Amino acid sequence: MPRTTDSPPVPPRGQRVRETTARLRQRILGGEWPVGGRIPTEPQLVAALGVGRNTVREAVRALVHAGVLECRQGSGTYVVSTDELAPVVARRLTDDRMAEVVEVRRAFEVEAARLAALRRTPEDLAALDAALAAREAAWRGGRVAEFVEADVALHTAVVAAAHNPMLAELYASVGTALRSTVAHAMGDALEPDRYVDHSRLVEAIRAGEPQRAAIEAGAFLEPAAGA
């Protein structure tokens, strides 16, 4: 049927695909379709989004290519990441590039610590104290996997205290790489010579001393130091 003068213009196909891709991404980021979960079927998406089957198919294909979705033959399409950058970083992560990862961590974490010392709130300090306590408890218990997660949680809390959403998003993208550097530095056991005290970093942030916080954040991220 020809479009009447009162009908809204139909956007070009490429624009429809981009808009549909963005809508799918928003639902993933909003938690409607969590990581590990299956998204609705193609007919269900067509009905929910009000676009054609080909548009939905291309939008899903774009997110598969970006590493956000994964098509599993005979099972459906699943969310494998909420972040398009994370799979790219993970694919690049190899033992011979670990030094590069540490340098990237340093670039993020030194500035995050500096900003955290300027912007931290009482809630941020409480989160830092809790993360530090969990990290110390895991170390005392000799629990390697738990320590790695606790260490990552502490560094993430520092970044959160910087109150820079873009920095937090970018930092989250290197989460897998971050865990790998910590695990690589720790090895199979928590040896005393590998322990790094993070209490001074937390105290510098608490004291509102950005320069000292930045120095503390960078001190344990020299190439030979690992975590």
Automatic annotation (TrEMBL):
Q: Which UniProt keywords apply?
A: DNA-binding, Transcription, Transcription regulation
Q: Which GO terms describe its molecular function?
A: DNA binding; DNA-binding transcription factor activity
The organism sits in which domain of life?
Answer: Bacteria
Q: Does Magnesium appear among the keywords?
A: no
* Residue intervals of the HTH gntR-type domain: 14-82
Q: Does the keyword DNA-binding apply?
A: yes
What protein does this entry describe?
FadR family transcriptional regulator
**Species per Swiss-Prot/TrEMBL record:** Micromonospora endolithica
Classification from the root reads: Bacteria, Bacillati, Actinomycetota, Actinomycetes, Micromonosporales
